[in-house]
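// run 5 | inverse folding | seed 20
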Protein backbone atom coordinates (compact mmCIF):
# COMPACT_ATOMS: atom_id res chain seq x y z
CA UNK A 1 0.00 0.00 0.00
CA UNK A 2 1.45 3.35 -1.08
CA UNK A 3 0.31 6.91 -0.63
CA UNK A 4 1.17 8.01 -4.16
CA UNK A 5 2.35 6.24 -7.29
CA UNK A 6 3.77 8.44 -10.03
CA UNK A 7 3.76 6.90 -13.50
CA UNK A 8 6.56 8.29 -15.64
CA UNK A 9 9.94 9.80 -14.75
CA UNK A 10 10.10 12.79 -17.04
CA UNK A 11 10.54 16.28 -15.60
CA UNK A 12 6.87 16.45 -14.51
CA UNK A 13 6.90 13.13 -12.66
CA UNK A 14 10.32 13.74 -11.13
CA UNK A 15 9.38 17.17 -9.82
CA UNK A 16 6.13 15.81 -8.37
CA UNK A 17 8.25 13.23 -6.52
CA UNK A 18 10.64 15.92 -5.24
CA UNK A 19 7.79 18.02 -3.84
CA UNK A 20 5.97 15.02 -2.34
CA UNK A 21 9.11 13.74 -0.67
CA UNK A 22 9.86 17.15 0.82
CA UNK A 23 6.26 17.29 2.10
CA UNK A 24 6.83 14.02 3.96
CA UNK A 25 4.79 11.90 1.54
CA UNK A 26 6.74 8.89 0.29
CA UNK A 27 6.23 8.57 -3.48
CA UNK A 28 7.38 5.88 -5.84
CA UNK A 29 7.94 6.50 -9.53
CA UNK A 30 7.37 3.74 -12.08
CA UNK A 31 9.30 4.26 -15.29
CA UNK A 32 9.57 1.79 -18.17
CA UNK A 33 12.80 3.30 -19.44
CA UNK A 34 15.59 5.38 -17.97
CA UNK A 35 14.48 8.61 -16.23
CA UNK A 36 14.27 11.73 -18.38
CA UNK A 37 11.40 11.23 -20.80
CA UNK A 38 11.52 13.43 -23.85
CA UNK A 39 14.51 15.35 -22.49
CA UNK A 40 16.63 12.32 -23.38
CA UNK A 41 15.81 12.93 -27.02
CA UNK A 42 16.89 16.55 -26.89
CA UNK A 43 20.38 17.56 -27.89
CA UNK A 44 20.54 21.06 -26.44
CA UNK A 45 18.20 22.78 -23.99
CA UNK A 46 18.60 26.54 -23.95
CA UNK A 47 15.32 27.66 -22.40
CA UNK A 48 15.47 26.18 -18.92
CA UNK A 49 16.41 28.88 -16.47
CA UNK A 50 19.67 28.30 -14.65
CA UNK A 51 21.28 26.42 -17.55
CA UNK A 52 22.40 28.54 -20.49
CA UNK A 53 22.83 25.41 -22.55
CA UNK A 54 22.66 21.83 -21.37
CA UNK A 55 22.05 18.52 -23.12
CA UNK A 56 18.73 16.84 -22.34
CA UNK A 57 20.58 13.75 -21.13
CA UNK A 58 22.63 15.78 -18.66
CA UNK A 59 19.60 17.64 -17.27
CA UNK A 60 17.71 14.35 -16.90
CA UNK A 61 20.67 12.84 -15.07
CA UNK A 62 20.94 15.82 -12.72
CA UNK A 63 17.23 15.52 -11.88
CA UNK A 64 17.39 11.79 -11.23
CA UNK A 65 20.57 12.13 -9.12
CA UNK A 66 18.81 14.76 -7.01
CA UNK A 67 15.90 12.35 -6.44
CA UNK A 68 18.23 9.49 -5.63
CA UNK A 69 19.95 11.72 -3.08
CA UNK A 70 16.59 12.27 -1.41
CA UNK A 71 15.91 8.54 -1.37
CA UNK A 72 13.10 8.54 -3.95
CA UNK A 73 12.55 5.10 -5.41
CA UNK A 74 12.40 5.00 -9.23
CA UNK A 75 11.23 1.52 -10.19
CA UNK A 76 11.94 0.16 -13.69
CA UNK A 77 8.69 -1.46 -14.80
CA UNK A 78 5.96 -0.94 -17.38
CA UNK A 79 2.43 -0.07 -16.28
CA UNK A 80 -0.09 -2.28 -18.06
CA UNK A 81 -3.31 -1.17 -16.40
CA UNK A 82 -4.66 1.15 -13.71
CA UNK A 83 -7.93 0.14 -12.02
CA UNK A 84 -9.91 1.65 -9.20
CA UNK A 85 -11.38 -0.51 -6.47
CA UNK A 86 -11.60 1.64 -3.35
CA UNK A 87 -7.90 2.39 -3.99
CA UNK A 88 -5.92 2.66 -7.21
CA UNK A 89 -4.41 -0.61 -8.35
CA UNK A 90 -1.46 -0.06 -10.66
CA UNK A 91 -0.67 -3.28 -12.51
CA UNK A 92 2.80 -3.49 -14.02
CA UNK A 93 4.66 -6.17 -15.95
CA UNK A 94 6.56 -7.27 -12.85
CA UNK A 95 4.60 -6.04 -9.81
CA UNK A 96 1.33 -4.55 -8.67
CA UNK A 97 1.01 -1.43 -6.51
CA UNK A 98 -1.97 -0.16 -4.51
CA UNK A 99 -2.20 3.55 -3.70
CA UNK A 100 -4.46 6.42 -2.61
CA UNK A 101 -3.17 8.75 -5.32
CA UNK A 102 -1.88 8.30 -8.84
CA UNK A 103 -0.06 10.95 -10.81
CA UNK A 104 0.05 10.23 -14.55
CA UNK A 105 3.20 11.72 -16.04
CA UNK A 106 3.78 9.51 -19.06
CA UNK A 107 4.32 12.25 -21.64
CA UNK A 108 3.77 11.67 -25.33
CA UNK A 109 4.92 9.23 -27.99
CA UNK A 110 5.72 10.09 -31.61
CA UNK A 111 2.96 10.22 -34.20
CA UNK A 112 3.41 7.82 -37.09
CA UNK A 113 3.09 8.71 -40.76
CA UNK A 114 1.22 5.47 -41.42
CA UNK A 115 3.25 4.48 -44.49
CA UNK A 116 3.67 0.93 -45.69
CA UNK A 117 6.96 -0.35 -44.24
CA UNK A 118 7.17 2.34 -41.54
CA UNK A 119 6.87 -0.09 -38.67
CA UNK A 120 9.22 -2.78 -39.95
CA UNK A 121 11.84 -0.20 -40.95
CA UNK A 122 11.88 1.44 -37.51
CA UNK A 123 15.48 1.02 -36.42
CA UNK A 124 16.46 0.10 -40.00
CA UNK A 125 16.22 3.50 -41.62
CA UNK A 126 13.27 5.04 -39.84
CA UNK A 127 13.68 6.87 -36.57
CA UNK A 128 11.74 9.26 -34.35
CA UNK A 129 14.80 10.63 -32.55
CA UNK A 130 17.89 12.19 -34.15
CA UNK A 131 19.83 12.41 -30.90
CA UNK A 132 19.29 8.67 -30.32
CA UNK A 133 19.95 7.39 -33.85
CA UNK A 134 21.62 10.19 -35.85
CA UNK A 135 25.13 8.77 -35.46
CA UNK A 136 24.14 5.69 -37.52
CA UNK A 137 23.75 7.96 -40.56
CA UNK A 138 27.06 9.81 -40.30
CA UNK A 139 28.18 11.06 -43.73
CA UNK A 140 24.96 9.91 -45.44
CA UNK A 141 21.87 11.62 -46.80
CA UNK A 142 18.76 11.67 -44.61
CA UNK A 143 15.27 13.17 -44.62
CA UNK A 144 13.35 14.79 -41.79
CA UNK A 145 9.56 14.88 -42.05
CA UNK A 146 7.66 17.78 -40.47
CA UNK A 147 7.84 21.56 -40.33
CA UNK A 148 7.51 22.37 -36.61
CA UNK A 149 10.14 23.13 -33.97
CA UNK A 150 10.80 19.44 -33.43
CA UNK A 151 11.52 18.76 -37.12
CA UNK A 152 13.92 21.70 -37.49
CA UNK A 153 15.66 20.83 -34.23
CA UNK A 154 16.19 17.30 -35.58
CA UNK A 155 17.41 18.68 -38.94
CA UNK A 156 19.94 21.00 -37.29
CA UNK A 157 21.32 18.16 -35.19
CA UNK A 158 21.58 15.88 -38.22
CA UNK A 159 23.19 18.58 -40.40
CA UNK A 160 26.34 18.33 -38.29
CA UNK A 161 26.56 14.57 -38.89
CA UNK A 162 25.09 13.90 -42.31
CA UNK A 163 26.14 14.97 -45.78
CA UNK A 164 22.69 16.26 -46.71
CA UNK A 165 19.42 16.70 -44.82
CA UNK A 166 16.12 17.10 -46.69
CA UNK A 167 13.29 18.59 -44.65
CA UNK A 168 9.97 17.46 -46.13
CA UNK A 169 7.09 19.76 -45.13
CA UNK A 170 3.52 19.01 -46.18
CA UNK A 171 2.50 22.71 -46.19
CA UNK A 172 4.75 25.44 -44.86
CA UNK A 173 7.21 25.71 -41.99
CA UNK A 174 5.60 26.55 -38.67
CA UNK A 175 8.77 26.43 -36.56
CA UNK A 176 10.03 29.50 -34.67
CA UNK A 177 11.99 32.18 -36.54
CA UNK A 178 15.12 31.37 -34.52
CA UNK A 179 15.12 27.78 -35.77
CA UNK A 180 14.17 28.76 -39.33
CA UNK A 181 17.10 31.20 -39.44
CA UNK A 182 19.50 28.56 -38.15
CA UNK A 183 18.27 26.17 -40.82
CA UNK A 184 18.72 28.80 -43.55
CA UNK A 185 22.34 29.23 -42.46
CA UNK A 186 23.11 25.52 -42.99
CA UNK A 187 24.19 24.78 -46.54
CA UNK A 188 23.45 21.07 -46.30
CA UNK A 189 19.80 21.44 -45.25
CA UNK A 190 17.31 21.53 -48.12
CA UNK A 191 13.73 22.41 -47.24
CA UNK A 192 11.09 20.98 -49.59
CA UNK A 193 7.66 22.55 -49.06
CA UNK A 194 4.13 21.47 -50.03
CA UNK A 195 5.12 17.82 -50.44
CA UNK A 196 4.28 14.57 -48.71
CA UNK A 197 6.03 11.24 -48.56
CA UNK A 198 4.24 8.80 -50.82
CA UNK A 199 6.26 5.64 -50.58
CA UNK A 200 9.27 4.03 -48.97
CA UNK A 201 11.64 1.93 -51.08
CA UNK A 202 13.50 -0.76 -49.18
CA UNK A 203 14.60 -4.35 -49.02
CA UNK A 204 15.83 -4.95 -45.49
CA UNK A 205 16.82 -1.28 -45.06
CA UNK A 206 15.46 2.02 -46.33
CA UNK A 207 17.02 3.02 -49.67
CA UNK A 208 14.80 5.74 -51.17
CA UNK A 209 11.90 7.97 -50.22
CA UNK A 210 9.41 8.81 -52.97
CA UNK A 211 7.54 12.11 -52.67
CA UNK A 212 4.10 12.90 -54.07
CA UNK A 213 5.60 15.40 -56.54
CA UNK A 214 7.44 12.45 -58.13
CA UNK A 215 10.86 13.31 -56.69
CA UNK A 216 13.03 10.50 -55.24
CA UNK A 217 15.24 11.24 -52.23
CA UNK A 218 18.20 8.83 -52.07
CA UNK A 219 18.26 8.68 -48.29
CA UNK A 220 19.24 5.90 -45.95
CA UNK A 221 17.57 7.50 -42.94
CA UNK A 222 14.19 9.15 -42.43
CA UNK A 223 13.43 10.96 -39.18
CA UNK A 224 9.73 11.50 -38.53
CA UNK A 225 8.91 14.58 -36.41
CA UNK A 226 5.25 15.29 -37.02
CA UNK A 227 4.15 15.75 -33.44
CA UNK A 228 3.58 13.59 -30.41
CA UNK A 229 0.49 12.19 -28.69
CA UNK A 230 -0.13 10.69 -25.24
CA UNK A 231 -0.35 6.88 -25.16
CA UNK A 232 -2.88 6.16 -22.42
CA UNK A 233 -4.30 2.73 -23.17
CA UNK A 234 -3.29 1.63 -19.64
CA UNK A 235 -6.08 3.92 -18.36
CA UNK A 236 -8.84 2.37 -20.47
CA UNK A 237 -10.70 1.08 -17.41
CA UNK A 238 -10.85 4.52 -15.82
CA UNK A 239 -13.59 6.85 -17.00
CA UNK A 240 -11.31 9.84 -17.54
CA UNK A 241 -12.41 13.08 -19.14
CA UNK A 242 -10.21 13.70 -22.16
CA UNK A 243 -9.83 16.34 -24.84
CA UNK A 244 -8.20 15.56 -28.19
CA UNK A 245 -6.46 12.55 -26.66
CA UNK A 246 -5.12 14.49 -23.65
CA UNK A 247 -6.27 14.27 -20.00
CA UNK A 248 -8.38 17.20 -18.83
CA UNK A 249 -7.40 18.60 -15.44
CA UNK A 250 -8.21 21.61 -13.31
CA UNK A 251 -5.60 24.15 -12.14
CA UNK A 252 -4.47 21.74 -9.43
CA UNK A 253 -3.80 18.99 -12.01
CA UNK A 254 -6.77 16.96 -10.73
CA UNK A 255 -8.63 14.91 -13.31
CA UNK A 256 -12.36 14.17 -13.01
CA UNK A 257 -11.42 11.02 -11.04
CA UNK A 258 -10.75 11.80 -7.39
CA UNK A 259 -7.14 11.01 -6.51
CA UNK A 260 -5.95 10.79 -10.12
CA UNK A 261 -3.75 13.66 -11.27
CA UNK A 262 -2.14 14.33 -14.65
CA UNK A 263 1.00 16.40 -15.18
CA UNK A 264 3.25 17.38 -18.08
CA UNK A 265 2.60 16.49 -21.70
CA UNK A 266 -0.29 14.05 -21.05
CA UNK A 267 -2.39 16.95 -19.87
CA UNK A 268 -4.54 19.11 -22.14
CA UNK A 269 -2.93 22.58 -22.01
CA UNK A 270 -1.50 25.35 -24.13
CA UNK A 271 2.25 25.05 -23.64
CA UNK A 272 4.36 21.89 -23.65
CA UNK A 273 7.74 22.82 -22.26
CA UNK A 274 10.11 21.34 -19.65
CA UNK A 275 9.43 24.28 -17.38
CA UNK A 276 5.64 23.86 -17.61
CA UNK A 277 5.99 20.12 -16.99
CA UNK A 278 8.10 20.75 -13.91
CA UNK A 279 5.54 23.28 -12.70
CA UNK A 280 2.64 20.83 -13.21
CA UNK A 281 4.49 18.27 -11.09
CA UNK A 282 4.99 20.73 -8.23
CA UNK A 283 1.34 21.84 -8.34
CA UNK A 284 0.01 18.26 -8.22
CA UNK A 285 2.24 17.41 -5.26
CA UNK A 286 1.23 20.53 -3.35
CA UNK A 287 -2.45 19.79 -4.02
CA UNK A 288 -2.04 16.24 -2.73
CA UNK A 289 -0.24 17.56 0.36
CA UNK A 290 -3.26 19.81 1.04
CA UNK A 291 -5.61 16.81 0.86
CA UNK A 292 -3.64 14.31 2.92
P1 LIG B 1 4.05 20.73 -34.23
O1 LIG B 1 4.48 22.11 -33.92
O2 LIG B 1 2.63 20.33 -34.05
O3 LIG B 1 4.48 20.45 -35.76
C1 LIG B 1 4.13 19.26 -36.38
C2 LIG B 1 4.61 19.33 -37.83
O4 LIG B 1 4.34 18.07 -38.44
C3 LIG B 1 3.89 20.38 -38.67
O5 LIG B 1 4.77 20.87 -39.63
C4 LIG B 1 2.77 19.56 -39.31
O6 LIG B 1 2.32 20.09 -40.55
C5 LIG B 1 3.49 18.26 -39.58
N1 LIG B 1 2.60 17.12 -39.69
C6 LIG B 1 1.64 16.70 -38.83
N2 LIG B 1 1.05 15.59 -39.29
C7 LIG B 1 1.65 15.30 -40.48
C8 LIG B 1 1.49 14.29 -41.43
N3 LIG B 1 0.60 13.30 -41.27
N4 LIG B 1 2.26 14.31 -42.53
C9 LIG B 1 3.18 15.27 -42.70
N5 LIG B 1 3.41 16.27 -41.83
C10 LIG B 1 2.64 16.28 -40.74
O7 LIG B 1 4.85 19.63 -33.39
P2 LIG B 1 6.36 19.62 -32.85
O8 LIG B 1 7.30 20.20 -33.83
O9 LIG B 1 6.57 18.23 -32.36
O10 LIG B 1 6.30 20.60 -31.58
C11 LIG B 1 5.41 20.33 -30.49
C12 LIG B 1 5.63 21.36 -29.39
O11 LIG B 1 6.92 21.18 -28.81
C13 LIG B 1 5.57 22.79 -29.90
O12 LIG B 1 4.94 23.59 -28.92
C14 LIG B 1 7.02 23.17 -30.03
O13 LIG B 1 7.23 24.56 -29.89
C15 LIG B 1 7.67 22.39 -28.89
N6 LIG B 1 9.08 22.08 -29.24
C16 LIG B 1 10.02 23.07 -29.05
C17 LIG B 1 11.34 22.84 -29.41
C18 LIG B 1 12.37 23.93 -29.22
O14 LIG B 1 12.03 24.98 -28.70
N7 LIG B 1 13.60 23.74 -29.64
C19 LIG B 1 11.72 21.64 -29.98
C20 LIG B 1 10.76 20.66 -30.18
C21 LIG B 1 9.43 20.91 -29.83
P3 LIG B 1 1.15 21.20 -40.62
O15 LIG B 1 1.77 22.49 -40.18
O16 LIG B 1 0.77 21.15 -42.04
O17 LIG B 1 0.06 20.71 -39.71
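// decoded
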Amino acid sequence: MRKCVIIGAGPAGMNAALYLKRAGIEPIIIEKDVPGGEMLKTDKIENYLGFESISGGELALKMSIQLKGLGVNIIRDKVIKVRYDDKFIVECEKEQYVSDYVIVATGRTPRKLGLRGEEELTGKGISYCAVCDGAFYRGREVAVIGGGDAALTEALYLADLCSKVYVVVRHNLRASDVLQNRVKAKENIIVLKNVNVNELKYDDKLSNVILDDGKTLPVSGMFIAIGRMPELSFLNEIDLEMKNGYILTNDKMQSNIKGLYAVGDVRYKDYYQIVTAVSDGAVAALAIREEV
